[in-house]
Backbone:
């Protein structure tokens, strides 16, 4: 039986009809004229692959057209994904391709689905180049077009009124990133410390501000992660992507650095079987084996799994410092229906290495210290950490317009962190005094986030409203002891001294409970304009217990933050935008009068433009911003042993980024200009000074080419160039010299040698190919040598 609906019938329906018809509700008079107007206009569509009837339902409602068809016509038929901008006719043709059906326009402007007659004229061919992208699933290539970090919803990057970059798993693999910092080497606005430090912990700056732990900007799967930077680092092999949202983002995530957030997205189970085993050998006796296995567990696909694992043993370019790691991440998804899913995510990581103590610029810039010199004692120095986490991600769609999400994770980190530090050097004898640090670090965190996403409105004006509640309960306990040890001759080091550890505990215990309510509305007007508005209320209870005097300092803070933004879509693919956002971060301690410090507060203004031509193989962006931070700490003019909150900091900058695919060439290019400096302080010497370790200029580019089109099938090569300008360093009158580093990659698919080699690939990566010597500093006494040339050969087998 064929079912026909009209506008009058629709007006009597309290909710969209399902199963019998596919339609779009036109709420205003003159709907037929509207349908004629949109028929030739290209609208943006993001429809996932799935049952054909449901896909047509979503398409017709989005396009604002009436549609009639026989329910039996679409039964047991599926549609490919539809992503991009299409006219109504092009969209119907793409959705119905290969189904034996066609969409026929009626005299009144409505559409009917009918079988293609044998004598019917063939429909014009529509090539759908865009791949349907999941913000948490596997994505081929270096270009992501969607992300979740900026809105906590699945949103096209083009519709985001704030700077956002995504490093995909393919990019992480192509560049052979060994740390989160290295995975962001080709991302604008990001500055990291030396690799010798970042292999142990994740510590980077974005727009001049530090993002090092959960309360400054490190996220995992959209939730706050580790309470302390010293817990451990996140293993890049376990990630599907890294999303970097630059700028103030407290409206969605609570207390944060104004630099933004880095959201690491865990690998999750896949509907299709996927298996991979790789083996590495490389510089510094590197030996590593990894495995990634995924696929369905049940015939109906309701259950699926993923298991990601890594085992590494390696030395480094510094004597007595190894780089050993074990990583295991199981995941299980239960999807009882198309509308409901529950994914359990777990991880375990054990790291064994040693801390590379920072030295002064005087000892490193001129090469006074040998690059491989180890200041510590092999029998004492250690960084031994164990981290595990477990939680779940739950989503249920009540219908196409109402979704509930509830996520939870527990985190536990335990580290023993002992090292010797640099003292003074006797230039004539080479003897160097050493300090002793003995630390036991323990962290725990429980985080949860529950939100409701509601979509409603008319074809002309549509709303995506997000309302949510999140909570983060964290504890960071650090026991720290000092000691003494004999000096060492760095020209001829002889190890074996035994440090003597004192009994005074100089550490502290920090406890914090954060609770937030947030509300956000993304309003789209006629597919030409997106307006974003959001607000959040936070409450933070915290306490710091100082072990030295057993003094507990409690604090209670609250903050109301807001954001707003506007994006305009031009027909030629350009999307200019403007936005305003706020952030806050509580401060530990108090002033001379015993008053607790207030949170720092930051406001960001940003304007930018993106360009994404039809087809989605290119995304370019440019952004100008200014961040003003108030309530910073500066010296109390009455008593210099105390601080007051009158300091201010400002960061201004320009960020350019391009990601594109030209045939067989994939390209990433970016440039960053950052001017971050103190604008107000009670110390005249600080006013106008730039933030230490942040250069004015930084740029990078990565290009990789598949030679299959020029007679070399299976061969792929890549080259990257990373430039960083001169760096100001607190305490130094001159800047640290800039640098240009070159990376390279060469890969060959061995199945070109014959079917017996199917699934095998050989790849060689080189970091700092030309072995450039350089120094990285965050302060006058906080310098480390940059990583020497590092070459890794990888053989992988996929099936």
Residues:
């Amino acid at each position: 039986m064929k079912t026909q609906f009209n506008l009058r019938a629709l007006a009597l329906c309290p909710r969209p009809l399902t199963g019998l018809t596919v339609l779009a509700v036109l709420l205003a008079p003159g709907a037929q004229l509207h349908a004629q107007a949109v028929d030739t206009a290209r609208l943006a569509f993001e429809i996932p692959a799935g049952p054909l009837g449901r896909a047509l339902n979503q398409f017709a409602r989005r396009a604002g057209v009436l549609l009639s068809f026989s329910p039996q016509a679409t039964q047991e038929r599926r549609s490919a994904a539809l992503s991009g901008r299409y006219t109504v006719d092009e969209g119907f043709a793409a959705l119905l391709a290969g189904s034996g059906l066609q969409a026929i326009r009626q005299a009144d402007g409505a559409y009917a689905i009918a079988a293609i007659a044998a004598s019917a004229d063939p429909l014009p061919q529509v090539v759908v180049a865009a791949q349907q992208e999941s913000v948490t699933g596997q994505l081929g290539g270096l270009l992501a077009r969607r992300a979740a970090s900026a809105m906590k919803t699945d949103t096209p990057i083009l519709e985001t009124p704030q700077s956002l970059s995504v490093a995909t798993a393919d990019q992480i693999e192509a560049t052979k990133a060994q740390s989160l910092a290295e995975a962001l080497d080709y991302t604008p606005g990001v500055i990291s410390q030396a690799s010798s430090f970042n292999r142990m912990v994740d510590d980077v700056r974005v727009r001049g501000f530090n993002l090092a732990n959960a309360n400054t900007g490190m996220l995992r799967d959209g939730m706050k992660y580790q309470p302390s930077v010293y817990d451990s680092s996140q293993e890049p092999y376990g990630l599907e992507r890294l999303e970097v949202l630059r700028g103030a983002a407290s409206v969605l995530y609570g207390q944060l650095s104004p630099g933004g957030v880095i959201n690491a997205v865990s690998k999750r189970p896949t509907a299709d079987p996927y298996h991979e085993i790789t083996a590495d050998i490389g510089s510094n006796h590197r030996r590593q084996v990894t495995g990634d296995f995924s696929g369905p567990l049940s015939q109906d696909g309701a259950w699926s799994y993923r298991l990601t694992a890594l085992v590494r043993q390696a030395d480094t370019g510094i004597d007595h410092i190894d780089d050993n790691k074990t990583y295991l991440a199981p995941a299980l998804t239960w999807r009882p229906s198309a509308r409901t899913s529950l994914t359990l995510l777990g991880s375990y990581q054990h790291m064994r290495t040693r801390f590379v103590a920072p030295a002064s610029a005087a000892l490193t810039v001129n090469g006074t210290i040998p690059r491989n010199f180890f200041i510590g004692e092999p029998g004492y120095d250690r960084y031994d950490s164990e981290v595990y986490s477990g939680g779940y991600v739950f989503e249920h769609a009540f219908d196409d317009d109402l979704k509930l999400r509830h996520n939870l994770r527990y985190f536990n980190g335990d580290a023993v962190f002992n090292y010797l530090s640099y003292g003074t050097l006797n230039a004539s004898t080479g003897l160097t005094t050493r300090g002793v640090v003995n630390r036991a670090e323990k962290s725990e965190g429980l985080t949860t986030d529950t939100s409701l996403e509601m979509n409603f409105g008319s074809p002309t004006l549509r709303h995506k409203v997000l309302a949510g509640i999140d909570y983060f309960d964290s504890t960071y306990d650090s026991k720290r002891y000092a000691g003494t040890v004999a000096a060492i001759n760095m020209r001829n080091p002889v190890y074996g001294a035994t440090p003597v550890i004192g009994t005074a505990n100089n550490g502290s215990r920090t406890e914090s409970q954060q609770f937030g309510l947030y509300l956000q509305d993304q309003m789209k007007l006629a597919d030409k304009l997106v307006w974003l508005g959001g607000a959040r209320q936070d409450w933070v209870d915290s306490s710091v217990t100082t072990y030295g005097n057993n003094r507990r300092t409690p604090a209670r803070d609250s903050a109301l933050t807001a954001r707003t933004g506007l994006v305009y879509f031009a027909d030629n693919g350009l999307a200019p935008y403007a936005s305003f956002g706020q952030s806050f971060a509580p401060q530990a301690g108090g002033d001379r009068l015993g008053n607790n410090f207030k949170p720092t507060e930051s406001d960001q203004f940003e304007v930018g433009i993106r360009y994404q031509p039809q087809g989605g193989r290119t995304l370019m962006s440019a952004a100008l911003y200014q961040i003003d931070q108030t309530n910073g700490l500066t010296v109390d003019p009455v008593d210099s042993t105390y601080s007051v909150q009158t300091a201010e900091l400002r960061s201004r900058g320009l960020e350019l980024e391009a990601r594109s695919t030209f045939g067989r060439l994939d390209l990433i290019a970016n440039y960053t200009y950052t001017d971050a400096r103190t604008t107000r302080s009670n110390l005249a010497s600080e006013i106008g000074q730039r933030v230490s370790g942040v250069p004015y200029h930084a740029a990078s580019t990565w290009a990789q080419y598949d030679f299959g089109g020029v007679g070399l099938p299976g061969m792929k090569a890549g080259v990257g160039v990373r430039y960083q300008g001169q760096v100001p360093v607190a305490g130094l009158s001159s800047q640290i010299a800039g640098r240009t580093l070159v990376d390279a990659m060469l890969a060959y698919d061995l199945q070109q040698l014959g079917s017996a080699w199917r699934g095998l690939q050989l790849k060689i990566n080189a970091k700092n190919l030309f072995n450039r010597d350089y120094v990285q500093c965050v302060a006058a006494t906080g310098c480390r040598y940059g990583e020497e040339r590092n070459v890794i050969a990888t053989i992988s087998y996929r099936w």
